[in-house]
Amino acid sequence: MKHFLQLRDLERDQFEHLFGRTRLIKERFKSYIAYQPLADRMLAMVFEKSSTRTRVSFEAGIHQLGGSSIVLNTSETQLGRGEPIEDVARVVSRMVDIVMIRTYEHSIIERFAAHSRVPVINGLTNEYHPCQVLADVYTFLERRGPIAGRVVAWIGDGNNMCNTWIQAAQIFGFRLNVCSPPGYGVEPARTAGAGREHLEIFTRPAQAVAGADLVTTDVWTSMGFEAESEARLAAFDGFTVDAALMSAARPDALFMHCLPAHRGEEVTEDVLEGPHSVVWDEAENRLHVQK
Ligand code: CP
Ligand code: NVA
Question: What does pLDDT average to over the chain?
């Protein structure tokens, strides 16, 4: 059985097949052509953290494919009253065909998957967000062609998105320039195996962005880290993606952000709403790639 817990759970040729399917599925959707191979199939979604895009894209997506979904928010289920994740996995996976989970530590989704009878998809953990980077790489492909050989700059927190981009660089063959404030860089364990051709760490944002084909960032405080938000606000000073920073990238560089965005913190309003930004395509493409 195949789970999708990290981006590297699939290989490049499988992603290429998937992107071909995405294009077809998106075209059919845009033309109002029904495509419902998943009639009678049920997706369960377990949310231990908030969501807008992930919930809507999975719920709309499974419905469009002919299936149905059940949303389980921790606070409304026995998970919130301490039922072990292993027990929830064994019960839920006897009743549905596929499960998506958004949770805290990655070890939680691994424990769920180890006890599940059906495939499990990572809808975000503290460590990884593979569905989002899948949509982002597809969005780059749509706009600029293959991402292989390109330069992507990650500015900001060494978080779940950054860790997933590190895997993407190795899978798809591009270079990722990462620049984070001291103390908020990627954990050494997440960079293991990434050579210089795929990952370079910078101390100054403008150096990381120089010549980039894509500049991307994310919130300074991810879900689950709210207690650190005041310290982070101070530490990330100087790491805002603004027009001056974008001008160090290639003139045709794209700007991505997985959203939700905090205007005036990690990105300025003019960059988010400006000509480089493809953030709304990124969000939409969650639907198509996940289907
Ligand atoms: N980008 C993303 O995963 O958004 P949500 O938190 O709204 O699902
Ligand atoms: N890094 C962010 C992404 C939100 C989609 C978080 O984990 O909160």
Answer: 98
